Amino acid sequence: MKVAISIPDDLFSTAEALANRLGVTRSRLISMALAEFVAKHRSSKVTERLDVVYAAQESRIDPSLRRAQRKAASRSDW
User: What is the pTM of this model?
Assistant: First the structure.
């Protein structure tokens, strides 16, 4: 699909130089950047929903499990 957009001249120049360096067209560069941006925000929505779910749940660790974790961690080389 063809679209017309307006962007600042300096951003256009930077994008043009990057597209040339990567050996892709401006259209391909913009498509890649937009796809990455959309994916980032899609995953942030998932994170927001998970935060809501986990906020409603008790998150304390059982004391015996905590002791076992500390014991195991103290024997491990970090």
Answer: 0.56
